[in-house]
Structures are given as C-alpha cells and as structure tokens.
Description:
The chain is α+β, with helices and mostly antiparallel strands.
Amino acid sequence: MDIEQLMPHVEALIFASERPLTMVEMVEMLSNAFELPIEENRVATCIEAVREKYDASYYPFQLREAGGGYQFLTKKEYHRTVLQLNGDKHIKKLSAAAMETLAIIAYKQPITKSEIEFIRGVSADYSIQKLLEKELIVITGRNEEMVGKPLTYATSKNFMDYLGINSSIDLPQLKDITNIEIVMPTSGSEAQPEGEGLLMVTADGSLEQTAD
C-alpha cells in the first residue's frame, strides 16, 4: 500500500478518536485493518502529510501532537467561537488558590505539599484535593530524601491534553522561575517600631508612650 492510499486511513483514525492516538496504536490498528504489517516510518510520513495539509490557513483546525499522541485541535483564532457550542459547562473552573497551586506544580514537578505551602505561604490541602478530583494532577510517588517520605505531585496527562501540549517541557519558559525570592515572615522583635518607647492604649482609649 502506497502513502497516498494509507494517508486517508491515518487521517480517519485520528479524526474519529476521542483522545490523542499514539504512533504505536495507529500502527497496530492499521496493521489489523489491512491484515498486513504497516511500518512505523510509513505512518510517520502520513502524519506529516496530514499535518502539512491542515496547516493551510483555510482550515479551522490542525493536527497537533499532544498528551503523548496525535489529535485534531481547533486553531486558537476559533476558540472563542467554538466555546459558544457548550458554554461554560465543560470549562473546569479553578479558584485563584488552585490556579496558583497548579502553576507551582507544573513548573516545579515533582513537588511535595510542604514545598508548595512554603512557596505559597498558606495551606495547600484543599487546592491539591480539588486538582486531584479534576484529574489535573497526579501522585507520582514519595520523596525518599525528606523526613516522613511525603507524597510528590505532578501534572497529569489530562492537564497536557487540556493545554494541547505534549510534556511539561512545552510550557512557557519562565527564565527566573528558580530564582524567585521567598519573603519570610517578619519576627516580632523586628516588627517593633523604632523610637524611645512603644505606644499603648490606656483604659480610657487614649494613646500613651511607654519607656524602654
């Protein structure tokens, strides 16, 4: 079977699939369909041909490698239009806290809950639970070098599918992400005002300066 005959079958598989299809899956499916071995390099050539075809400006969608496989995705200039199809009901809304937690995990993965809380300065229990429920993050194991061997978290395949990326390497690069200075809480002694004494509120509600 030549490339021209094979290409529409590759295109049909990707189009009909509800999830990204991997190269291995396509090779297996095509080999089963035609009852003969289909070489991976021939499928790869077909994929590149399909990709080039839909890169033309008059197509509203394109072939993208995302989530470990290949799928058709609407081009970004049509996202707002397609959104009207289902409204907000299919959008996974996240709170600001959950978004902050997700961003930290995405750029620092694998990361523990205590490390997330150190960066954010507040508890991350609720945010992590919500992100797990929405299947945007997964538990990847434990940090064997930390006390108590805490669980570690990373972004999920669903997260990559949602953003249309293939791995965390495809995330926008933040050049100074590892050089962010953490503002530590001020100690009580450092928070005292300078001067000869401190101000205190008396029983009648007035202010009075105390001696050192």
